[in-house]
Design a protein that fits this description.
Blueprint (H helix, E strand, L loop, with lengths): L1 H10 L20 E5 L2 H4 L12 H8 L16 H15 L3 E5 L2 H4 L11 H16 L3 E7 L5 H4 L9 H16 L5 E6 L1 H11 L12 H28 L2 E7 L2 E4 L4 H24 L4 H13 L12 H7 L6 E4 L3 E6 L10 H5 L1 E4 L5 E2 L6 E2 L2 H13 L5 E5 L11 H19 L5 E7 L18 E3 L8 E3 L1 H12 L8
Helix pairs in contact: 4-6, 8-10, 9-10, 15-16, 16-17
The structure holds 4-nitrophenyl beta-D-glucopyranoside.
The site of 4-nitrophenyl beta-D-glucopyranoside (PNW) has 13 residues, from loops.
Length: 494
């Protein structure tokens, strides 16, 4: 009866967001489930066994008020010492894969190309990867999840073109040392957060605020670096190791604030300036045309002799094009997008280059995080847009999760994953979108960047007051375990 009602409502044009037609169908047999974490957020061991300081160690130590409660990642979840317990938790959940990141300053403390590799640091990752494989869990590795060696920040960080060579040396080391067991590599996690957050808005380490210039320099270098790391895999490792390489891109879904053409244009521009900023170069070779046109024009109006958005040469466009074996999306929330009158030409920055008004719907469920509302249908629209815009690539959801203030009976988190997964299932089964992996952020509560330990996103709770950092499964861990075991979101599937 309920099912028929939904169908009827669909026929009458009931909005997408109100349907749950996929809730009692099963995920395809080849679909894989996982959980994720990142080195600085979970490892701790910040100065042991030869690891050097990275930019998050540095900002937490030198500018403690940068983070809520003056928290830091010195110990975090202590996964550096407790990785076997982490793997046991993953095994209990029954995940197919674990997405984690490697701390560059643990593996190459000096940062620069040619400097010594720290064997103890490498051993940690070798042991973690081996433990995963021994337990039937695929390691999925992010090479860079924001924790740049401080030594490289002292050279200027990502806006410095020399970083390309330093990263490539690091990437080659990882392929060489771990590539026999690691078959899925991601070069960068969320370049938008690294570049806009780190060098534009300043809400991520190293905390610079030069939006509209340094953020674009940063992404330009980072994209070229990604392409080089991809080609090195192709040329030196792929034939033997048979793995795949991609880059992880985050976006919110941008919903037009009204049916007007202007608001539709604003929403599309939001997606191009967020997801397209990285996906278009990696897939098609260059920045989205709307970014090029707007930033070139505004730069000229501001008296710049050359555009603030750097140009790729024709050779670079060819080199960057196609450097992805999958499209990796981190997805959490949605926003309305509304068309705006052109910003004052003197406003210099990414947001005036983008120039749209963003705001949430009051009806969307709030969370503890200000920018974050629960908008489950957003994921269906986002993967449909990616599929349509980029010619139906294979898509991995590499992060999706729900922040709260803590507690083991986390019903809202269960609801969040159920609703987002239901929408994802509709995208797969009804819309034909090629999504093959889903990753919960996060395996356990951890250091949530400038929110410190306030915001919790884990399936497992961690007691940060206890020196042993004990982990306890939340209700959502049991729910996810059942979803993985049954490939179904409710008690019984068709
Ligand atoms: C992710 N947005 O960042 C990061 O990859 C994780 O390290 C982090 O813990 C997680 O989100 C939860 O916050 C994002 O504005 C930051 O859409 C911002 C956005 C998306 C992802």
């Amino acid at each position: 009866m309920k099912y028929k009602l939904v169908l009827l409502l669909c026929v009458c044009g009931w909005p997408l967001e109100k349907t749950h037609a996929a809730i009692n169908r099963t995920f395809p047999v080849n679909f894989k489930f996982g959980a994720a974490s990142a080195s600085y957020q979970v490892e701790g061991g910040w100065n042991v066994d030869g690891k050097s300081e990275n930019i998050w160690d540095h900002i937490c130590h030198e500018k403690p008020t940068y983070v809520a409660n003056q928290d830091n990642g010195d110990i975090a979840c202590d996964s550096y010492h407790k990785y076997k317990e982490d793997v046991a938790m993953l095994k209990d959940l029954g995940v197919d894969f674990y997405r984690f990141s490697i701390s560059w300053s643990r593996v190459i403390p000096g940062g620069v190309a040619g400097s010594p590799v720290n064997q103890l640091g490498l051993d940690y990752y070798r042991n973690l990867v081996q433990e995963l494989v021994d337990n039937g869990i695929e390691p999925m590795v992010t090479m860079f999840h924001w924790d740049l060696p401080e030594a490289l920040q002292e050279l200027g960080g990502w806006p410095n073109p020399e970083l390309e060579d330093h990263f490539v040396y690091y990437a080659r080391t990882l392929y060489k040392e771990l590539g026999d067991l690691v078959k899925h590599w991601m070069t960068f996690n969320e370049p938008k957060q690294t570049c806009l957050g780190g060098y534009g808005d300043g809400d991520k380490a190293p905390g610079y605020t030069s939006s509209g210039v340094a953020d674009y320099q940063c992404t330009h270098i980072l994209l070229k670096t990604h392409a080089k790391a991809y080609h090195i895999y192709d040329e030196e490792f792929r034939a033997e190791q048979q793995g795949s390489v991609g880059i992880v891109i985050d976006t919110a879904w941008f919903e037009p604030a009204s049916g007007s053409d202007e608001d539709k244009e604003a929403a599309e521009r939001g997606l191009q300036f967020t997801f397209g900023w990285f996906a278009n170069p990696v897939i098609n070779g260059n920045y989205p045309q709307v970014m090029i046109d707007r930033i070139d024009e505004r730069s000229a109006g501001q008296g710049f002799e050359i555009s603030r958005l750097p140009k790729f040469t024709d050779e670079e466009i060819e080199y960057i094009k196609g450097t992805h074996d999958f499209v990796a999306l981190n997805f959490y929330t949605a926003t309305y997008a509304q068309w705006l009158e052109e910003a004052d030409i003197n406003d210099l920055g990414y947001y005036s280059d983008l120039n749209i008004l963003q705001f949430p719907d009051d009806a969307w469920e709030e969370t503890v995080t200000s920018w974050f509302r629960v908008v489950p249908w957003g994921i269906r629209k986002a993967v449909n847009w990616i599929s349509k815009t980029y010619d139906n690539p294979e898509i991995f959801i590499t992060e999706n999760g729900y922040p709260d203030a803590g507690g083991l009976e986390d019903d809202r988190r269960i609801n969040y994953h159920k609703e987002y997964l239901s929408n994802l299932l509709e995208a797969i089964l009804d819309d034909g979108v090629n999504v093959t992996r889903y990753t919960v952020w996060s395996l356990m509560d951890n250091f949530e960047w400038t929110s410190g330990y306030n915001d919790k996103l884990g399936l497992y709770s961690v007691d940060f007051e206890d020196p042993d950092r004990p982990r306890t499964p939340k209700a959502s861990a049991a729910y996810y375990k059942q979803v993985i075991a049954t490939r179904c979101l409710v008690d019984v599937c068709e």
